Amino acid sequence: MPSIDNDIRPIQLTDETLNNRKTKLLQKMTEEHLDAVIIYADLEHGGNFEYLTGFVPRFEEALLVLHANGKAFLILGNENLNKAPLARIKAEAIHMPQLSLPNQPMDTALSIAQILNQAQIDHAKSIGLIGWKKFTSSTDDNSVLYDLPYFLVEGLMETSPIAQFKNATDLMIGATGVRTTNNENEIAHYEFGAMLAGNGILSAMDQLEIGKSEMEVGSYLNTAGQTPSVVTIMATGERFEKANLYPTTKKIQLGDCISMTVGYKGGLQSRGGYAVRMTEELPEEERAYLDRVAKPYFNAITTWLEKIKIGRTGGEIYELIEEVLPKEKYGWHLNPGHLCADEEWLASPIYPESTEIIQSGMLFQLDIIPSVPGFSGVSCEGGIVLADQNLRLRMQAEYPEMWTRMQARRNYMIETLGIHLSEEILPMSNATAYYRPYFLDKESAFINC
């Protein structure tokens, strides 16, 4: 079993990184001829906002208005107005109490449009609205689909009557989005969460025993007071009974299906299988699980890790997984791999016929989800980052402890798990690719041979 990462410490984003983020976005705005962009955030959808400000608005909503000349405004509710002086981007604060919680004081004589007008967008001719979703529908006009609350879109259009509006989320995510790749500081920042998730899944797997409750095992998944990026899952037997998503007092029984997931900024780990020690302990009709589900799945995982390369297209990777794990037979339908950052799912360059290029600095979540009728789920989700020689040298020079950890993980995956990684592949946690589908057999795991 891989070791637990010890002495885990968060790495803060530097002023240089934050300044570079703003510069990159301003360059994209110039290329797209945008006078201003307006970035929306709430707790669940704050990544694009946090990318520049350094914080999410917790339980409120917020807007960041960025002009092409670099001037910025933060439009905030009652309990986040005090965050403006602390933001990582220099910005003028504007109070909009309508962004606050229900029944809090909304003592203002100004309408929403009048408040928005303080951000000096009334003469803008082209404005990009950025929520969190890059729409890719084949039937709608994606440029005019806005995932901002109606009251804000309506107010913005009243405030800026001459402006042409468009969904500009592709400036942040997608093939040419500024958040698609990461520098060495960002990778070190995100490794913290990836390591926490790896430690959590390894600890929970080690603690899983017959008679323990979901909550007992689930308590090992979350740690260090950090906010998860997804709902933590520890389920035994049927998942989501009566629509419940959370661990309960239900106790693990021999032969139960098991599902575990924990994620933080920078990475997620997920495992699925059975609470058994050997095949004979499975229900008779499910004893073909290894050959029918788990082995083909692990083969797809190792194939993905061995074949993904800087310069390949996302379409090539998609077809590769379709070849070794045909979705018609194995029931997967989501993207076999996606980017992550502050969000668990940022975007994905891997989809049918994708011409998006796999790039250095991409932080990937290896996420293939088969669904074969009659059997438990299967999962060995984890994260890696791709880094070319220049990025690797910078990582080694600036963050030698991280570099040493990543090399130890590579050695484990290559020498113990038998997965032949290229130099470009750097695992984000010790748990990546470690998979034992029989959770009670703590001495055996899959290897590539």
TrEMBL record:
Give all residue intervals belonging to the Peptidase M24 domain. 197-381
Creatinase N-terminal domain mapped to chain residues: 21-88
Q: Which residues form the signal peptide?
A: none
Q: Which InterPro entries match?
A: Creatin/AminoP/Spt16_N (IPR029149), Creatinase/aminopeptidase-like (IPR036005), Creatinase_N (IPR000587), Pept_M24 (IPR000994), Peptidase_M24B (IPR050659)
One of this protein's Pfam families, by short name? Creatinase_N
Q: Which domain of life is it from?
A: Bacteria
Q: Which CDD domains match?
A: APP_MetAP
- This chain belongs to which protein, by name? Xaa-Pro aminopeptidase
Source species: Enterococcus hermanniensis
